[in-house]
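Q: Structure tokens for this one, please.
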Amino acid sequence: MAATATDFLVDTHCHLDAGEFDSDRDAVYDRACAAGVTVQVVPAVTAANFSEVAATCQRYPGCLPAWGLHPMYIHVHHEKHLVELRRQIEQWRPVAIGEIGLDLFAPGLDYATQEFFYVEQLKIAKEYELPVLLHCRRANDQILKHLRRYQLRGGIAHAFNGSRHQAEEFIKLGFKLGFGGAFTYTRANNLRRLAVDLPLTAIVLETDSPDIAPAWIGRGRNEPAELARIAATLAELRGMAIEAVIEQTTQNARDLFGPVF
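A: Here is the predicted structure, written as tokens:
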């Protein structure tokens, strides 16, 4: 699917800086643009990763940075990295703080440490009036508890895979729900119901490239060009024209991130 003068896709969560793309990153970017995916939000995961994200966003037009400390990397985070995060925000204002959050699925991640970095980054997001990109794996209720306390300007529950009630709680707080490759599997009954039943105004599209590959790739490497077919899958499930899905999900991303594209 090629972009038209008015229609383009926003990949709201794409790790284009990841090592999996080192051998062919230019080609990956070109395929994304050819598929109409002309805006990609690239979140950082550690302080050491800020430079790779910055270099990627400088090289490729339409790639926009988010700065954050990911919960799965608490073994490398230090309190001084929160100072570095503030410095990075001052040097290059991002579209969001992320990827941040909590992970109650992966073994060996100390919850108290995760919670400390999550809460401190919520404070930073509030201070700079920025939305957040949330890693919520098996932790939606815990994530929501802190969001209610800090009342941010919104964000995205990335790779959302919770209940209808949890989805509605995120929406009440001004958050969008990130849908990507996971709902393209026919066995993903809960996600597919949510993709149909939730208001389209609450949904944004993402790939999480190189991860969370859609059904037609399976265990292979995901990439942002696949967002076009992900959008087509959402349109098919909802019984809508794909143009309407693209228009609304792009507008949803604009509403969240502001006039940056």
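A few notes: The chain is about 40% helix and 15% strand. The first strand starts at residue 9 and ends at 11.
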